[in-house]
Amino acid sequence: MNSRIAVIVAIAVTLMIGILVGRSWAPVQGGGSEEDSGPEVLYWVAPMDPNYRRDEPGKSPMGMDLVPVYAGDEGAERGVVSIDPTLLNNLGVRTALAERGTLPRRIETVGYIGYDEDTLQHVHTRVDGWIEKLATTATGDPVTKGQLLFELYSPTLVNAQQELLAALASNNTVLRNASRDRLTALGVTTAEIRRLEKEREASQRVRVYAQSDGVIAHLGVREGIFVTPATEVMSVARLDRVWVLAEVFERQSAWVEPGQEATVELDYLPGKLLRGTVDYVYPELDPQTRTLKVRLRFDNEGETLRPNMFARVVIDGSAIDNIVHVPREALIRGGSSSRVVVALGDGRFQSREVLIGIESGDRVAVRRGLKEGERVVTSAQFLIDSESNIDVALERMESAR
Fold first, then answer.
1. Of 199, 216, 237, which residue sits at a domain end?
2. Do 313 and 262 form a contact (C-beta atoms < 8 A)?
3. pLDDT per position as a tens digit, 255-291
4. In what order do the strands lie in the sheet with 148-153?
5. What is the Cα–Cα distance from 285 to 303, expressed in whole angstroms?
6. CATH number for 311
7. Beta 310-327 vs 261-266: how paired, if at all?
8. Do 297 and 374 reside in the same domain of the chain?
């Protein structure tokens, strides 16, 4: 009897345990089927600050929607960040392809109009004396060939004229030739010597005339001033030809050489391009600006180009073939390295260090770190790069523990 009661109790206990286990197992199976419908969300982070984590959706301190991090993303590639498509659109992210091809050594710089120094004439006297009459009184005054510049009174010239007159009176041929040569050496013109021999009267003032057309580029005297052979009385420059002196950066100094084509544009002549060639490359850099001076020569018909005018200069150097290059705006310059942000697709971006080459116009050559056909970010790349660097720094801190 007791054994029957024990068997019945055991059966009843077993049934109750089975019912309880069945009730607790049913919801677990139902919940498992719902979770299998998508990847498991581990946590939620701020788009611009991976350190800000939450267990449920919400807003970041910057007011942005938190981005879910799914199971399996913890093994993602180093330095790769993912950005929600909506956020990408709000940031205005633009990309461009890394291209392989020819990159010209294009030099864009500034220059200034200057006198053609080959036509510059410096006027000095060959004796001491006084400027008695100054025909040109201001810098910039135009002069024509044969025009009177000034009259000079010099006791030395008066005495030399008297010697020639004495030689003429004595009929001494040797003395006459010597006196004539002395006047020529002192700067007296042949026409003035002939007048002296004809009129037999010494002139108290000797006239100095312009040797060519031009303008007064420099005037260093006034009427009545005492001058010596070391005094620069004035400079006369022609304006039918001018120089354009361009300044080339030190890193581009090896690109330029005589004979290369160049174009010049001035604000004074908007829309008009002056085409010329590099005439001369100066041998040394300016110690103040650290730039190399390059000379271009242009004909100045109508004298429209004025000295000291500002000019924009473009010099076309030789090209480099078979090189990968990207837009200049895609480059992020650092203290010791440069980087670009590469778009990997599906909202994923990677900050990558690159070795750059020459810069030509709005393009930059990439020698290492980027392949042809990869797409780089050209706007908002600084924000993406900063987030990528934060991720890398966190990984280093975690590995150092």
1. 237
2. yes
3. 899 999 999 999 888 888 889 899 999 999 999 999 9
4. 205-209, 148-153, 129-134, 226-227
5. 30
6. 2.40.30.170
7. antiparallel
8. no
Judge if 306 and 255 occupy the same domain. yes
Q: Which two tokens stand for residue 376?
A: 């780089």
Each residue's pLDDT tens digit, 69-111: 776 655 455 567 777 777 777 777 888 899 998 888 888 899 9
Same domain for 92 and 5: no
Check whether residue 351 and residue 375 sit in a common domain: yes
Q: Which residues contact 368 (CB under 8 A, 6 or more apart)?
A: 354, 355
- Same domain? 233 vs 243: no
User: What are φ and ψ of residue 167, in 5° steps?
Assistant: -65, -35
Lookup: tokens for 150: 């000034």
User: How far apart are the C-alpha atoms of 352 and 372, rounded to whole Å?
Assistant: 15
Q: How many independent structural domains does the chain possess?
A: 5
Residue 148: give the domain boundaries: 121-237
> What per-residue confidence (pLDDT) applies to 4?
57
Burial of 397 (0-12, 13-18, 19+ CB in 10 A): exposed
Question: How many CA atoms does the CB half-sphere of 177 hold within 13 Å?
Answer: 2
Average pLDDT, the chain: 81
State the Cα torsion 94-99-102-105 to the nearest 10°. Answer: 40
Is beta strand 41-46 parallel, antiparallel or unpaired with respect to 67-70?
Answer: antiparallel
Query: 53 and 2, same structural domain?
Result: no
pTM score over 0.90:
no
Please give the structure tokens belonging to residue 81: 């960040």
The two tokens of residue 307 are: 């000295």
Of 330, 300, 328, residue with least CA distance to 95: 330
